Amino acid sequence: MAYHTQEDPLPYEIVGNLHVHTRYSDGEGSHEDILRAALDAGLDFIVVTDHNVWVEGLDGYYYRGDNRVLLLIGEEVHDQGRHPQKNHLLAYEARVELALEAADPRRLVTTILERGGLAFLAHPHDPEAPIFKQPDLSWVDWDIQDFTGLELWNFMSEFKSRLRSLPAAIFYAYNPGLIGQGPFPEALKRWDQLLAQGRRVVAIGGTDAHATHIRLGPLKRIIFPYAYLFRTVNTHVLLEEPLLGDLDQDRRHIFEALRAGACFIGYDLPAPTRGFRFSAHGERGEAGMGSNLMLGLGVTLKIHLPSAAEIRLLRNGSLVRVWEEEQSVVHTVREPGAYRVEAHRHYRGRVRGWIYSNPIYLQGT
Description:
TIM Barrel; 5-stranded mixed beta sheet
């Protein structure tokens, strides 16, 4: 169900998972399994991104009683002949098979953009798990500059980073609520560096859901069920109008908002993240996430959380201010830059990342 408030310039909030795999690549479930899980989790839309295969003809709304979810098809593209494996890319809205372009990431990004699509770097920091012979799958070709954004928080990459020993793997397999702590510091640092250079780079979150069936001796486990993962790291998209049930129009509005950066990352296990808002207000007007605003004599930033937590305001990656256990705050700034918000809260014994906004870009006169 879309969240709606009359006071926002982008008043309609929808929630989706942008990184999911099926049996068409290395996932365990069918598209029908994923749709059921998405409906169970209360998602508004889901994007399936199988490895090096674009499955045509499945996009559309699926209904269960009064509830519905929008299924969209993208692709996770990478060069299967590259050793070691690197440079996985999430392609949305290109609407064509892209696997033949995988060997040249620069050409791949160009092809996606020329077709009106979006190109996001998947799990840009993805450390290896040697005990399970899982390689480092990080992005390495950082000289490419035209990509839309990056997957700042990938839940399964974070799980992979916990697999330092067999006991640790078993522990986290049975305690997945203890996995999520936030995006890797390396991913945050890279994003902030790009923002400080004046780049417009959109951040999204995803689960990389596979629902993999694992067996370790007598132990059997699904790592992790789709319905569970769809309640963890999702991307919240802000729209000017609600989804109307028209595939072409609604798809266009979702991807236009993602392209602009009118979205934020929410980790819903600690507490619901629907309802977060971050906006800028000044003499030259107002702006939301992904938008720019002229500074003039100063701009007031407004931050609202669904419930009280620690709030951090950053400019070009540098900390501006921290608020402890607040729900709504305002702060006036007079310096240009890319301003973004993080919210952290205590959950299961430690402080964990909860909400990560996209930037508002304030420009000097």
